[in-house]
Amino acid sequence: MGSQTLPRIVITAGDPAGIGPDIVADALDRDYAAAIAVLGDPGVIADRARQIGKAVTVSECDRGEFLPHRPGNIRVTPVSVSSPVSAGRLDPANAAAVIATIDTATDLCLAGDADAMVTAPVHKAVINDAGIAFRGHTEWIAERVGNALPVMMLAGPKLRVCLATTHLPLSAVPGAINAELLSRILEIMDRDIGRLYGIGRPRIGVLGLNPHAGEGGYLGREEIEIITPTLESLRSEGMCLTGPLPADTAFTPGVLDELDAVLAMYHDQGLPVIKHQGFGDVVNVTLGLPLIRTSVDHGTALELAGTGEASADSMVAAIELAIAFARNAAPANQAGQ
């Protein structure tokens, strides 16, 4: 955090037609021990705040200018939209502004001018409709920082779940699971969960790919041929790994009590469990990057934009977790790790 006594948090406002401006206005009407700046269109955020009945003050600030946050005072570095915004109505003309907020937040973190970034939801399809090849925040940021291997983690108050594969068809998952990928992901989890949460040696549970973790080879051989040898090799290097675990019993209290995080092999093996446990309190964290990035656990919810019905709980949780991470990881951030 350099000479700053407060973590510097930069927040992207997301797609202006979605609930991003709503939840930013709502979340920043609260107190945080941080210096916070938002990237977005000040007029859109102010208009949306009025629509949802939030009596906040929106003022402009320069890029990289952070002052201690005061509830109800939203400081915005302008990234102007190109087309008038109507809540709930997507417009490809504004996609470039959305991307610019992500790029600027990333650059501020890489330069050491911000300690963490928090992202509001964007709409992938409308960005692609604008001619921008965009698969999601995670992949876009990873490419911008130099093709890092990003690891998606959803973190709740009692459970943390990472994914070995993310947005793949189920038929493509077995072919994507290999020893090199698992080793790199587990090394990232061991390093980043330990650093961000202040855990000396994270206890990581690794799920099997197949039902009953392969049932000794009768229900699949990935556990025998890939997962188990990889875990044994990493254990010999000092990692605290449990598994491969059958996914249908891994999320029971007796097992989770002994773990700090779980690695699922594919998207719908792990995420439904944590979202059922605490949707709205869960935060999307990207591990494996040379910066701290947290995000909400939901999408743009166009039907809720401007109605005042969108919950800011996940945004609040994402901001609070980014602040905690920035404090825990300050020495590593200063070293550019």
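That was protein one. Protein two is written in the same sequence-then-structure order:
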Amino acid sequence: MTGTVTGTNTVGHAIVRTNTAELSLAVPRPLPTGSNLLLQTSGNPILPFRTDVQQNTLVLAERWETLNDAIRTGPSAAAPNSISQTIPQPGAQFTNSLLFFIAALRAGDLRSWLGQDAMRHIDRESLLGRITEEFGLMQRIANEPAGQDWRLFLIPIFSDEQLHQMRLFVRDGSGGERDDSDPQETRFVIEVTFTNLGQFQFDGLARPKALDLIIRTEHKISSYLQHAITDVFTDTTSALGLSGGISFKMERFYEFQPLRDSGLAIDSGVIA
């Protein structure tokens, strides 16, 4: 079959659209957008184990689909008992709700995070088994270091009445590009895709009294936005008594890819 390259996903695979499906194609180097490809089956597919399929689906997805199903069938987002009310979302309470979710995830306590009303609704919609199993897999991914000691937190974010997924990678000690050996250092990387601005990668190095941050984007962002982000960073670090700096890099294909280095996503040839 024939296909056209429409872009690149977060792990560097070419996204190829055909007449019947959208494929993710692992290639040794980026393919230009708009390239036409002729694809031919070379043998029967070799499928990974079911747990790896579930892991790949959760890690590579743009959102947690089972949770999204629960949101769509539940009360409206404005209702006080809405499932979306428990999900981190932009605003004054974002940090608190984010930390609450991470604590619940590490403890494997789905009920304390969602609450009794949400759990009853999920049970009525026959989603409880799926969401409990996926939450358990997300807990294992977050608590067990993978390749290069990365731990990955898959965090649901509710914004503009839609569910999104943020990836938070954490590793004790810097390693990688920032070659320091201080055991008190923590390397963290946040990957998120914005509707209008595209993919962002926040690459941070935290030390007891300092924080450095690199922001990578796939498209150039305006000077106004860079200054606004820098002001927020400077005000926040100053209020916390931290030193450090912030810089911006535009990279069409991110050279630093913690998801690839962690080995949490299966590097198969084609994912349909």
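The chain has a mean pLDDT of 83. Keep this in mind for the problem set.
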